[in-house]
Amino acid sequence: MEKFAPKYKNYAVLMAAGLKRKQGQTLVEYGLILALVSIAVIVVLALLGNQLLNIFNTITNTLGTNGS
């Protein structure tokens, strides 16, 4: 029975190391997702920037003339 105790201690150490490694991987994965979403937003704004500007200008002008 005493021979099994060291094996369980080593297993616990390995499990703890594995959990730390998984937490680090999760952080890296979240960073990659954030980077990809940021790139997607930048691309969409670059492609649709002028159209969005025209829409907001139209809204502003309409509210400005009706609000006076």
Describe the structure.
This protein has 68 residues and is mainly alpha-helical. The chain has one helix and no strands. It has one helix at residues 4-67. The termini are far apart.
In terms of topology, how is this protein built?
Blueprint: H1 4-67
Helix share bin: over 70%
Q: Major sheet: size, sense and barrel closure?
A: none
- Total number of helices: 1
Derived structural class: mainly alpha
What's the N-to-C terminus distance?
89 Å
* Number of DSSP E strands: 0
Q: What is the molecular shape?
A: rod-shaped
Please, what is the average pLDDT? 79
Radius of gyration: 28 Å
Roughly what fraction of the amino acids lie in strands?
Answer: under 5%
Summarize the structure.
This protein has about 70 residues and is an all-alpha fold. It contains one helix and no strands.
Q: Main attributes?
A:
single chain; 68 residues; mainly alpha; 1 helix; 94% helix; 0% strand
